[in-house]
Amino acid sequence: MDSADDTGQTVELMDIVAICRPKYKDRPQIAKIVQKTRSGYSVHWMTGSYSGPWTVAKKRDGRKKVPWVDSIKESDIIYKKISLTSGQKLTNKVAQTLRALYAAKDGSKS
Length: 110
Fold this sequence. Notes:
two-stranded antiparallel sheet; 1 helix; 8 strands; alpha+beta; 6-stranded antiparallel β-sheet; disordered N terminus
């Protein structure tokens, strides 16, 4: 685990990553990698907040609720290898880093 070089990290199955999608930019976008695909990865979206616990997001499929699966490109990932606390929360350091990353992304396209 070498966290000094963020860009060189490979994404592995079940890793939790932060993603940047403009339409959801008002909140952190965190997902768990479930499969590698030709164009990137399949992910289960997670739901939570900077200060609250994170769980896998569910959506309705008929009568049952199933994990919200999406496909992302490698380039959508802005932060890799997020580790949640035992309470399933972001650490303060990660939360601050993500806020800064999203703010930078937001400012870069104006």
